[in-house]
Specification:
- It is built from nine helices and six strands.
- It is of the alpha/beta class and 212 residues long.
- It starts with a strand and ends in a 5-residue tail after the last helix.
Length: 212
């Protein structure tokens, strides 16, 4: 059996609803976000899990906990899975950032791989720390199902690296709604993407919720 990595974005937060940049900020899940975590656990608890890795932020830990409890598996927290740092843009909307940090914002939009939010991280910085986590997982789990619970930008960047997309285009090529799962098999000929941004495990009412 190959190593199969499930990338799960955390559920809904007040920040994901408001539409402001949220990287190092640490909001909790909304009640609906907690239900998204329960829906994921109920759907996937029968799968045999080799390991569960999570960003240490509250929203990802809360997303991973119901599955860990159901499966009886210990969550492993990894700093490399944190969300990208948005620096001085944290909590601000794109409109506000465009006004206050216009030049930096335009540079970042053109290539977020090599340009950072003001005082924040570049995409390539996130790709390096994310790749270290993947390397560690491959050493510890040569086969089986592994869950990674992380964040919107971090997951998109990690997927870009695995499937050969320019990191500078991660925002243009990959959509990653809250509480969505993407599945990559670490196959003999390289990473093979099976599923991208799936939310079919959510109840109908939760699937209809659209983040800002």
């Amino acid at each position: 059996m190959s190593l199969i990595i499930y990338f799960l974005r955390h559920g809904e937060t007040t920040a994901s609803q408001a539409g402001g940049y949220c990287g190092t900020l640490d909001p909790d899940l909304t009640p609906e976000g907690y239900q998204m975590a329960e829906d994921f656990a109920n759907f996937y608890k029968s799968l045999s899990w080799a390991a569960v890795y999570s960003s240490p932020l509250r929203r990802t830990v809360a997303m991973a906990k119901p599955l860990c409890d159901s499966a009886g598996i210990q969550m492993q927290l990894k700093e490399g899975l944190r969300e990208i740092s948005y620096g001085r843009w944290e909590s601000k909307t794109p409109k506000e950032v465009n006004i206050e940090f216009h030049d930096d914002y335009i540079r970042w939009l053109s290539d977020p791989g090599w340009n950072a939010p003001t005082g924040g991280e570049r995409g390539v910085d996130v790709s390096r720390r994310g790749s270290l986590v993947i390397d560690e997982i491959e050493k510890e789990c040569r086969s089986g199902n592994v869950l990674i619970v992380s964040h919107k930008a971090t997951i998109r960047i990690m997927l870009s690296v695995l499937i050969g997309i320019d990191v500078g285009r991660y925002r243009d090529r990959i959509s990653m709604p809250v509480a969505s799962i993407s599945i990559v098999e670490m196959a003999e000929n390289g990473p093979l993407l099976h599923v991208m941004g799936d939310r079919s495990f959510l109840s109908e009412d939760l699937r209809k919720r659209i983040e800002a």
